[in-house]
Amino acid sequence: MSRALTAPVGATGTHARRRCAASRCSSSGPTTRWTRATRCDASVGKEDAGNGSRPKRPARVPRRVPRPDAGGGDAPAPTTKSKPAVRRRTVAATDRGKALTDEEKAVRMRELRERAAAPRVAELAEAVRRACDAGEYKPAQAAYAELKAVPDGVVPPDVFETMLSLCARLRMPSSAEGVFIDSLAAGAAPTESACWKLLETFESSGESRRAEKVLAYMESRGIG
Length: 224
Known about the structure:
Layout: H1 2-6, H2 9-27, H3 30-53, H4 102-134, H5 137-148, H6 157-170, H7 173-185, H8 192-204, H9 208-221
């Protein structure tokens, strides 16, 4: 006791501090470490328990977009492509033309039929020319008769003159007169060459009266 009282102050404080440190070390020994490990295990167990009890999120369901034709107020309106603007030309009443009369329609129809018959007419006319050049009357007469029978066909004017030349060469006055009458009926104006060939046919055949009629016709028409 006397030692404790007589000991220096600094020495006494030093021993006290050493004892406190020793007590701290003893307290922080295995027991402290076991306590800390227990606390860590408990916290980990709580986290595992929380993870295990956490509910699963439901699977994501894709959102269905309503069709445009389905009924419903929220359905989007179908997109329509805008058509390009077209400028319309206003046609005046004068551009529509004039209605044709019945006579004009008949003329148009006759012209169309004549065009349709033109190929056949050209073929037969060429056959008549070849026969006349060869001096063959029967083939020429057959082609000439067929040519006149073509529906809506127009006999070319030179075919009449070709036949008249053949009749004058063969001295066939009746055939020559028939060809001349055919030319007048077809609306072809008798040419000066055709009249002289007919006159020559009558004179060479001794048909003086017919020849005089041809001369009178030529004087009335101012031909010759």
